[in-house]
Design a protein that fits this description.
382 residues; Beta-Lactamase; Heat Shock Protein 90; 3 domains; five-stranded antiparallel β-sheet; five-stranded mixed β-sheet; 9 helices; elongated; disordered N terminus
Length: 382
């Protein structure tokens, strides 16, 4: 009996040691935050990540390591309240250091609740600066290519098109009625190509950008008015706006057109999917503290806390073109020209922002992040 009792006492110790070994050996930074908001434990990878020893951090508040990061605190509180895991993609966190000078680190965050201890586990996967820079340059690349194409097409195509249309109209005036079909087809196709060149010309870098202090919700409502009339009774647009967002400095017409393109894409996807019901497209605005992109010089940092997300429950992005959807002439639509999303990428990039697309939880989500206007207070109004 004594021997058996001794073995049952040893088992939990062995399990505990095994858990400690796994925790220590985990390759990514892992932090445990207790119910009072203090750091309860951190693995060696976490020590290396923050460049501080565990003994200097354990028992202290989260702000002692990460500063006053409102987004991170919100994620922790939400994870604890809902008891569900949460993920945050490409978030910039500020780390305190022994010298007192904070450093900004882009990372992906994963949070989940440990039921036995009620601690929240925070897993950090650092994103390298090069990855962010590459992402921003990829969003800009389609714009650069199409700008060159726009100038070339405007010069080479418009004059011949005018001649072709003039010839078609002349033929229509002299041909008998039973021979007009070919002339009308010629005029129709010339008009179609002219419209295409006009669309491509939107990408011209020489076009002036008239920036002014603008409310993002006015832009969204203007775009919605344009799209809603087209999809009346077929699609319901649901707005979830944060009314306290600061203004942006923007070319209103360009941004309206960019959001018209995104909303039309979403509405068409939902309409085609939901044959017998009214589809729903959700437009959400929010302030995301800590989100930033690398500037065009490859060095400067641009904060882009104004977030707009357009979500639909359509069939989603075609996998074979998902990585190229912001490039010109790439489209999965029958008869699609593939210029709408390329224009979105250019317009948002010209405004110092970022646009991303993802498929998650049965929804296709396009997320636009934009900077606050200069002179506007940074930070979410309380």
């Amino acid at each position: 009996m004594t021997k058996s009792h001794s073995r049952t006492q040893a088992m939990p110790d062995e399990d505990h040691c095994r858990g400690e070994t796994l925790f220590s050996a985990f390759p990514h930074p892992l932090f445990l935050i207790d119910p009072k908001g203090a750091l309860a434990q951190m693995n060696p990878s976490a020590e290396s990540f923050i460049a501080l020893p565990a003994r200097a951090c354990l028992g202290k508040s989260l702000a002692a390591v990460f500063g006053d990061n409102l987004l991170l605190q919100h994620l922790i509180d939400t994870t604890r309240a809902t008891r569900r895991p949460y993920f945050a993609h490409d978030v910039e966190i500020s780390l305190q250091s022994a010298t007192g000078a904070p450093r900004a680190v882009p990372a992906d965050l994963e949070l989940f609740l440990l039921t036995e201890s009620a601690d929240v586990a925070l897993l950090v996967r650092e994103r390298k600066q090069a990855s962010r820079l590459k992402q921003r340059h990829q969003a800009k690349a389609p714009a650069l290519g199409v700008s060159t194409l726009a100038r070339m097409m405007a010069h080479e195509v418009k004059n011949p098109l005018a001649a072709i249309r003039g010839t078609a109209q002349l033929l229509e005036s002299i041909l008998p009625d039973d021979e007009l079909d070919l002339a009308r087809l010629l005029d129709h196709e010339a008009r179609r190509i002219q419209r295409l060149t006009e669309q491509v010309d939107l990408f011209n870098d020489d076009a002036s950008i008239r920036r002014e202090l603008t409310n993002i919700h006015d832009v969204l409502d203007n775009a919605l008015d344009s799209v809603d009339a087209t999809f009346l009774k077929m699609v319901r647009f649901q707005k979830n706006y944060d009314p306290s967002l600061p203004d942006i400095n923007a070319d209103r017409d360009q941004l309206v057109q960019a959001f018209v393109n995104l909303l039309k894409n979403a509405a068409e996807a939902v309409r085609n999917q939901e044959k017998d019901t009214t589809g729903v497209v959700t437009i959400t605005s929010a302030y995301r503290a800590g989100l930033s992109v690398i500037g065009r010089d490859g060095k400067s940092k641009i904060d882009v806390p104004i977030e707009v997300q357009i979500a639909d429950t359509g069939p989603g992005l075609h996998q074979e073109i998902a990585s190229m959807i912001f490039e010109p002439f790439v489209s999965s639509k029958a008869g699609g020209r593939g210029l709408g999303l390329a224009f979105v990428a250019k317009a948002i990039s010209d405004h110092g922002g970022l646009v991303e697309a993802e498929r998650r939880d049965g929804q296709t989500r396009f997320t636009v992040a934009l900077p606050v206007a200069r002179g506007q207070k940074q930070g979410h109004p309380s």
